[in-house]
Amino acid sequence: MNLHLRSMLWGPVGIGAPGLVALFLHFLLLSLLAVGGAITTAPDMHRFVVSERHWLSDAQFTTSVALAQAAPGPNVLFVAVLGWNVGGLAGMFATMVGTLLPSTTLALAATRWGNARRDSIGVRAFTAGMAPLTIGLLLATGWVLTDPARHHAGAILLVALTVIVMLRTRISPIWPIAAGAVIGALGWAG
Q1: pLDDT value of residue 17
Q2: pLDDT, tens digit, for every residue of 30-60?
Q3: Residue of 60, 181, 152 lying closest to 45 (CA atoms)
Q4: Are the CB atoms for 105 and 24 separated by under 8 Å?
Q5: Burial of 169: CB neighbours in 10 Å, binned 0-12, 13-18, 19+
Q6: What is the DSSP secondary-structure string of 115-183?
């Protein structure tokens, strides 16, 4: 097998079968913790693939998430990009199946159970209690994703302005994201 094909199938890092199994199992576990979507578990994904395994750098991780979030489609696509960057097609398969299998199975079972009992006080209390947890997980994700730019005053100002615009207006999120891309490309946030 030539080097290019091998790299495409197994990734530039060449993590091998034990690495793929570890990647699959880690994303399988994170799927069960992903209250509010896969993006809420990005801090632990970062810990695993960057800090612990050193399969990606901080910049590669952040770029993978940003690229997938900018592309049209579901938010979970960043998991596929991370898997691709770690282990090629096999890594992408490991992360996506690991992420989607348990959460889909659990969501289907929980939805059926919850719909049958939607008026019970326990189901209503559980639903209300998940909102603060989801917000906290999203804030942790935002903190990890802003790490590369946190020491630049311009970048911090840009993040703060984006949050204010999102909280105070009904402007589509694409406009602050596009403005941030232009400002970053021009070097004004660094």
Answers
A1: 85
A2: 998 877 788 889 999 999 999 999 999 999 9
A3: 60
A4: no
A5: exposed
A6: HHTTTSHHHHHHHHHHHHHHHHHHHHHHHHHTGGGTT-HHHHHHHHHHHHHHHH----THHHHHHHHHH
In this structure, is the dihedral angle defined by the CA atoms of residues 57, 41, 141 and 177, taken in order, positive or negative?
A: positive
pTM: 0.59
Break the chain into its structural domains and give their ranges.
Answer: 3-146, 151-190
Contact 134, 40 (CB under 8 A): yes
Tell me which residue of 61, 31, 36 sits closest to 49, measured CA to CA. 61
112-153 pLDDT per residue, tens: 998 899 899 988 898 888 888 888 887 788 788 778 777 778
85 C-beta neighbours (distance < 10 Å), count:
22
Dig out the tokens for 43 from the structure.
């801090």
What 3-state class would DSSP assign to 55?
coil
Question: How far is the C-alpha of 66 from the C-alpha of 177, rounded, in Å?
Answer: 10
Run of H or E including 61: helix 58-70
Q: 31: which residues sit within 8 A by CB, 6+ positions away?
A: 38, 41, 98, 99, 100, 101, 102, 103
Q: What is the dihedral of CA 72, 73, 75, 78, to 10 degrees?
A: -80
3-state secondary structure of 189: coil
Q: In this structure, what token pair is assigned to residue 141? A: 């994700």
Whole-angstrom distance, CA of residue 63 vs CA of residue 145? 9
